[in-house]
Write a structure and sequence with these properties.
Number of strands: 6
Strand order of the largest sheet: 2-3-1-4-5-6
Strand content: 5-15%
CATH topology: Rossmann fold
Number of helices: 8
CATH class: Alpha Beta
Number of domains: 1
Length: 214
C-alpha cells in the first residue's frame, strides 16, 4: 500500500467506535506514525465519569493541552516527515466542551482554546466512524476500562448526536463516512482494503462506506 502524498489523516467518531484500532492499522499500512490520544494520562477523566458536573472543566482543559502538544509536531514537521494518522482532531475538543461545560466555564474554556490552539492543522483526509449507541456501549464494556463503567448511557447518546451534527456540516477536508457497526477493522481484511482503496481515490467532498440506514 502506497502512502500517496498524505501528510496527516484523522480517524474520528464517538467513544468506543474503533478509532484507535483503525488509526494504528492505517499508520502501519502507510509506513507512518500513529498520533493517539492518551485518555489514561488525563487524571481528571475517571473523576469526570463519577461526577461530571464537578470535573468537566479540568478534564476538558487537560485534554486540550494534551492535544495541542501532540499537534505541534505536525505543524513543525518538514515535507519528508512520515505520514501521521491520528485518532482525534482538535475540533473535537470544542465539541466535548460544549457538551459538558456550563456557560461560564465554556466562556473561560473558549478564551484558553483561542489562545493556545492557534491555526488548526487541516488533515488530508478525515474518516468518520459511526455506530449506534447500543453497539458503542457493548464495545466499551468489552474493553473493560474501569472508569468507563461509570459512563452514563445518556451522555454517550449526546456524544453521538454531537458528532452527527458536527460532521453534517464539516467540509474542511475530504470526508469518508463509515458505518462501523458491524466492521472489524482489526481483523476484517476485506472491509479494511475497501476503506483503504476509497481513502486513496477520493480527492474532495464526502464519501460513504456501508452507510447507516436513514
Amino acid at each position: 500500500m502506497a502512502a500517496r502524498d498524505f501528510r496527516y489523516i484523522v480517524v474520528e467518531g464517538p467513544i468506543g467506535v474503533g478509532k484507535t484500532t483503525l488509526a494504528k492499522r492505517l499508520a502501519g499500512s502507510l509506513g507512518g506514525e500513529a498520533l493517539l490520544e492518551a485518555p489514561g494520562d488525563n487524571p481528571f477523566l475517571p473523576r469526570f465519569y463519577r461526577d461530571p458536573r464537578t470535573n468537566a472543566l479540568p478534564t476538558q482543559l487537560s485534554f486540550l493541552f494534551q492535544r495541542v502538544r501532540q499537534l505541534e509536531g505536525i505543524r513543525q514537521s518538514d515535507l519528508f516527515a512520515p505520514v501521521r494518522v491520528g485518532d482525534f482532531m482538535i475540533e473535537k475538543d470544542r465539541l466535548f466542551a460544549e457538551l459538558t461545560l456550563d456557560a461560564d466555564e465554556l466562556a473561560l474554556y473558549r478564551q484558553v482554546y483561542e489562545r493556545i490552539a492557534g491555526v488548526a492543522v487541516t488533515p488530508d483526509r478525515v474518516i468518520y466512524l459511526q455506530a449506534p449507541v447500543d453497539v458503542l456501549l457493548a464495545r466499551i464494556a468489552a474493553r473493560g476500562i474501569a472508569y468507563e463503567e461509570d459512563m452514563d448511557p445518556r451522555y454517550l447518546d449526546r456524544v453521538v448526536a454531537a458528532y452527527t451534527h458536527f460532521f453534517h456540516h464539516y467540509d474542511a477536508a475530504p470526508l469518508v463516512i463509515v458505518n462501523a457497526a458491524e466492521i472489524d477493522f482489526a481483523h476484517g481484511d476485506a472491509d479494511y482494503t475497501q476503506l483503504f482503496d476509497l481513502l486513496q481515490s477520493v480527492s474532495g467532498g464526502r464519501h460513504y462506506l456501508n452507510p447507516l440506514p436513514l
